[in-house]
Write the structure tokens for this entry.
Amino acid sequence: MTVLIALALLAAFSAGVYLLGRRRAVVLADGKSASLHSLPGYHGTWVALWAGVPAALIVILFAIFGGRLEDAALRAQVPAAVAALDAERQEVFWSDAGAMSRGQTPSEIGYVGDLKTALDAKAAEGRRIAAIGLIAVLGLSGVLALCGVLLAYPRLSKDFRARNRVEGWTNVLLIACSTIAVMTTLGILLSLVWESYRFFQSVPPADFLLGTAWDPQIAMRSDQVAAEGAFGAVPLFAGTFLIMLIAMAVAAPIGLYSAIYLSEYAGPGLRATIKPLLEILAGVPTVVYGFFAALTVGPTFRAFFNWVGGFLVGGPMDSLGQYLETVQNQMALTAGVVMGIMLIPFVSSLSDDIINAVPQTLRDGSYAMGATKSETVKRVILPAALPGVVGALMLAVSRAIGETMIVTMAAGLQAKLTANPLDTVTTVTVQIVTLLTGDQEFDSPKTLAAFGLGLTLFTVTLALNIVALGIVRKYREQYD
Amino acid sequence: MVAPMTAQPPLIRTAAPHTHNPAPVNPPKILVRDINVFYGAKQALFDVTLDIPGKAVTAFIGPSGCGKSTFLRCINRMNDTIPGCRVDGRIEMDGENVNDSHIDPVVLRAKVGMVFQKPNPFPKSIFENVAYGPRIHGIASSKSDLEGIVEASLKKAGLWTEVSDRLHQPGTGLSGGQQQRLVIARAIAVSPEVILMDEPCSALDPIATAKIEELIDELRQQYCIVIVTHSMAQAARVSQRTAFFHMGKLIETGSTEEIFTNPRESRTQDYITGRIG
């Protein structure tokens, strides 16, 4: 809160400085603003930037890292009563002291005697440290803001190149934003790699990548009697692959054919109606697809297969019939089909753009040879657009692999190594969700397995995306 | 005011040999009567009436936007592919109206080949480009038959010696002039009767242009050729008949020599001497 108020004050101060700098420039110009190197607004902006940005940076850095500094300062001196505790209890003490200094209630109340005195003392010290820190930072940022103005303002002159300097600031701002984006990605990747490394210390990579048994439910406490968990991820990869295949079998033909219809056959009016309608499909949240799959499609499929099974029982295909009668709601087919429906607009929209990029001269050439529309599509347009279409399909595949919600709700949680689309399977993403939901401790192989899976998933989708983008780029060059 | 034209030298020298030995006017291959073309509410062509002779080159000249390309596209009904385009009138080819409802444009376009302004080889091999028409129309009875057609077409288009050793490389890898000759080979592979050319040299350099013009002069022995061009010199060099279009109307038509040396209409003269355009 204090930080927000400080930032608002700084913004107001900068706005005032802007007006000041601007007026100074107008005075310098002596009424002829063309005699200035830069427009008065640039002079104002430049002074305002010097006044506001360094001070704001200090405040923001304090907001991010200040808490940790205060914590370190608080722990610098360890009272004797605390030093006598074991490490875990010490940790609880410090977090309680911190909580009390922020006016919150401590998690434990069993503090007595020396410990109680120490706690109260540390809470008071914490409040003092926080107050000092805040005053110091606010003071520092105020001084910085003033210094910025005092140093920048006198430099304004007729020939001062404020325009170019503001350009420099803009450049810095843009670089900062893109750096944040890149660093975040890098941070996610590093944390994935690090946690996966910890996971692979307890489970050998070969067991993980090649093992066929997945049973991560290991003992929660070391004194519990339970078998070691199994971390063979092959059933998960197989399940992911099976569902992806079913999804693409639905999405690729339907998406591609609707793209062909839209770009080659539909009139402009029809196209203007259908394309947005298709794109609405893309806006449906995946959880909605998920319960559509679980509550509508799944039971329908089950009823259908049970019905077919009823006919086959007692006949020459008795065993198949009996199997079909036992089919359950949750199956790979449901998840795959619904995921395919989800991917249709993705495929059709991308393919439509790609097909439209095929030059009109090629169509004219084919029509002028006496080819019909479908011959032109089949023999000229699709071959020309093929690399791009393949790229679009691969992007769809990487989405299918990463999709979680539909599979969680429609395909089940059991890790089975099967190619039967009527069986329940599970995918990498679903297992990550089940491993990490609920209260978990983050140092057992069970939870760390999620990072192993995440890293594998990340690698596969990244590779797919790189290949797909490469194909799309190569295709683009063909017509430019 | 205007001096008698007969005494003047030709406005543009017509260098091709046929000017000295004018080809006899062949019986018309295409009869055009009262063609009107509309793009939506806008009328692009007004009452065009014209005879196009067989086994000769007819050139359409005129400033940009005068309707000559639109008219060319009427002959093989390519305007059908443009949404909102409507064509009224009769175009008779060998006594049959191509705009008749029982005429299949797909069959018509096999008889009337077309070459476009920008070379547009398909993203396939040289062989497959030329084999495209024979394949879709089922002209070749066997693989060797198809190979024969491809070779003959490439030879007619004057490209065989340049590409015979790389028939299976992409057609898009050829130079602009070679691509345009490849496209001509593709058009003649289905043995059309008429070849329409829409500014076939406007994207080419002078050497490639000369080769195409030479080719056109050879092809007229066999085909009825209609060429749209912006180059008056080209019209004079390659054509026997010339038609001048202006603002959607056919202003004047006649033998090329007549149009370039002794036009009847002052607008024609203004255009070919560069006063309008």
